[in-house]
Amino acid sequence: MASSTSITLLAHCLCATHTFHTRIPPSSLPLPTSICHCTSCRLTTGALSTSATPWPTPRATVNTSALRTFAFSPRINVLFCGTCGSPLFFEFPLEKGARLSVVAGMVRVGRDGDGDEGCGFEDEDEGETDTGTEIETELLQSAKHICVGDTRDGGATLWAPRWDRRSGEEVPRFWGRSEGSAALGWDWLDEINTTRSEHGDQDEDADQDEDEKVLPIRCKCQGVNLRLHRGPASPTTTSTPPAKLRSISCSCRSCRLASGASTFHWAVAALSNISFATLSTFSSSASTSACPSTSTPAFPTSASALRAAVDASALGTLTYYASSPSTQRYFCRVCSASVFYASAERKGEVRVAIGVLGAGSGARAEGWVHWGGLEGDWYKNWDGYGHDAGVEKKKKQYARCGRTSKALMETRLDVDATA
Ligand SMILES: [Zn+2]
Ligand SMILES: [Zn+2]
Ligand SMILES: [Zn+2]
Ligand SMILES: [Zn+2]
């Protein structure tokens, strides 16, 4: 019989093939998380940042052998589910005992027996049936933001709360990793922009983005290496006026478990505007170019064709997990990056993970993505990539990929609407 003085900490992937659980004293909550905004984290998850907290049991007692491993760096491995792509752990192989940190978005508090019988949730895209016990205390606490400098534009820190709700202290932000790195003031982006404007180059990067006709869609391992093109026309059309893609910021269970981030950001794009990387030279160069080589296939232009192509192993390392009968979550089977979300209902479009976009201006790809709708009050409740019970409750109001709160979360721009 489990003691009432301890609680179950669970981590499981989206498809629930892999579940890890341990017991911890309630006094150990909230678990401190370090939120990393580095380019590698974005390219490995498709999210705008990742967050992790030490897994509180000895490494030797945690059997991760069924998880897939990606060498994120010489000193960090990402351990993820090969079926659904959920990143579960960061492993530090060079450290004594190969320490494990669990990806924060995968963690929740369960009730007795949870984890032994599976996680008990149904398909998340259609409903929220989490059986996890809601607790009054916070599960996670944002201790610091690191590698913010990598984002160039501040990335997701734009929406992160400034003050820690428990201590009332400012959550520190660091340009690089916190050790030996410069701490950033709250107004660091304003300061950078002021410096730029004094030199007459304010918003130069965003302007440059808007001039760009192609944008890389590339995961960390580069097994997924595609190009996103402007406008509704074919990749070889050069006369299309620049248009921004509408964004969807989603906190549904599927997005969270697929990426490990509490809030996931998508850009909606026409499939006909995506090509293989080798086609980019044709679309971005003069229209006098010859037709693309016949040896380079066209990228699928419908959700069903995309699925068929991946079923036939024709799209590099891209694979998918069907999170409901009509939806596919595409991820890289080598590095685990979330890349696309496609639905049979939206035949000619996909949602593209903004974290794998390679915009010159920065992580938010401001010259390509319209972020309208994020100013609403709801976003002030965002907990900086934790997800305690209170925040989960609130998020359910606008979860499910924007379906229940389109007015707040989606802004469709003219050209995109006709795509
Ligand atoms: Zn899984
Ligand atoms: Zn990182
Ligand atoms: Zn990859
Ligand atoms: Zn979602």
TrEMBL record:
Domain of life according to the entry: Eukaryota
GO MF, one example: carbon-sulfur lyase activity
Keywords from the named record: Lyase, Metal-binding, Zinc
SUPFAM superfamilies in the cross-refs: Mss4-like
Residues covered by the CENP-V/GFA domain: 9-125
Pfam family for this entry, one: GFA
Signal sequence residues: none
PANTHER family documented for this protein: DUF636 DOMAIN PROTEIN (AFU_ORTHOLOGUE AFUA_2G12650), GFA DOMAIN-CONTAINING PROTEIN
Family: Belongs to the Gfa family.
Protein name, as recorded: CENP-V/GFA domain-containing protein
